[in-house]
Design goal:
This protein has 388 residues and is mostly helical. Helix content is 60%, strand content 4%. It contains 15 helices and six strands. The strands form three sheets. Strands 1-2 form a two-stranded antiparallel sheet. A two-stranded antiparallel ribbon has the order 3-4. Strand 1 and strand 2 form a beta hairpin. Helix 5 (188-201) crosses helix 15, helix 9 packs antiparallel against helix 10 (286-298) and helix 13 packs antiparallel against helix 14 (351-367). The longest helix is centred in the N-terminal third of the chain and has 34 residues, at 106-139.
Amino acid sequence: MCKILVAIVRDVTLFRQPESTHLGDCPICCLPFSLNLAKSALPTCCSKVICNGCHYANLIREREESLEETRSEARVMCCASCGIAELDDIKLMDCDDCDLVRYCSDECKEDHRSQHETMCKERAAELRDEILIKQSASTNNVECFRDAILFRQPESSHMGDCPICFLPLSIDSKKSTVNSCCSKTICAGCSYANKLHQRKARLDRTCPFCRKLLPETQKEGNANAMIRVKGNDPVAMRHIGMMHYNDGNYEGAIEYWTKAAELGDVDAHYKLSVLYEEGKAVEKDEKKERYHLEEAAIAGHPTARYNLGCDEWKKGRIKRAVKHLIIAANLGHDGSIQALKEGYKDGKVGKEEFATALRAHQAAADATKSPQREAAAKFFAFREDKKK
């Protein structure tokens, strides 16, 4: 009897359909590998199998970076305006503010000013930051070193870009969705376009990124998230932490958010700062609250940056507050631009500072727009009106 049971259990295990092949998914694009081993690569540095698509894309990127370095060297050896090369009888002069270009004369420098001005300001700011960091490190001035990192303008918000359309994601989390299957944040435009395509073609509802079937219920979604938690996915950890927070289990929320923050999740840092401010499941701790706010702000979280600015304003440190608000406004944060507007009315924010922040705020908002996202916004607005 025992042998029969063993044989039955063995057969059940043997004839169970595997979820995927032994090769699994590519760790970069998260798509299943082909069974043809010639369609994948195995770098010796990390022993991770990479699909040929991602491997090829990486080679192209490295080649473009190499070409860009070569072009940069060529630009430095020639006048940026007229293109004349540096010879024995022709000496080129550096740009007054940056190290990107050189000129053969003052006339060329003046002619090229309009084309080079924006890039020059950005590079000059980077050079100032580098000098400040070096000085801080040499003098062991920890506070100054921290400020140099804290007040550096992030390249983008903590949301990053949509992995499908590659446009910057809106800092409004309602305009994007996180799928539990792959933990990728997809903009509303791509999600809506994917739904339309699947509906017209009568296809199953799948994730627009990894193409796995979408969960039918919240329970299935949470199960997917827990699978990714076991794989140390910080986004999934943040999701499970939020679920515990909404259920009133603040201890569980802290546990998951702390792990997610340790793995580099920016939003987890911000959520921890809120817990330390409110004193839920932990004692109120201003130092820990500020630490998590600063970590989130450095990584491009505009709301964390805005909170730091408001805190500095209350303490009377207006210059530091304005710096924080300008950085947040440059990332498209509406509350920060309104605070700068009030500061400008009170004479605490300069006219040029406010005008520059206003332009950058508008540019950040425009960068997140696309026809697909506008169509999605109209559809969701229509659906909300219909509910009312």
